[in-house]
Amino acid sequence: MRFECARIAASKQTAKDLLEAIALVDGLPSDHPMRPEANRLIELWSQEVLKLAEELFHKGKLDEAIAAARKIPAKATAHKLIEERVKRWQTIWSKAEGIYRKAEAALRKRDWKLAFQMAVQLLELDNKYWQTTKYDQLNTLINISREDGNKLYEAERLAEWGGLTNLLKAIKLADEIRPQSYVYQLAQQAIQKFGRKMMDFAQVALDRRNLSEALDIVSQIPKKAKLEEEVRDFTVLANAQSRVWQDTVVGLEAAISQAQRLRPGRPLYTKAQQLIARWQAEIEGVAQLERARSLAQGGTVGDLLAAISAASLVSSTNPRWNEAQSEMQKWQTEAETIEDRPILDIADQYASRGDMNALQAAIAQASQVSTGRSLYPEAQGKINQWTRQIQQIQDQPYLDQARAYAAAGNLQAAINVAERIRPGRALYNEAQADVSSWSRQIRTEVARVQAQAAQAQAQQNLQNARQAASSGQPNGLANAIQIASQVSTSGAVQTEIDAAINEWSWQLLSIAKDQAGLNPAGAIAIAQKIPSRAAAHAEAQSQIQIWKQSMKQ
Question: Taken in order 401, 403, 409, 415, is the CA torsion positive or negative?
Answer without folding.
Answer: positive
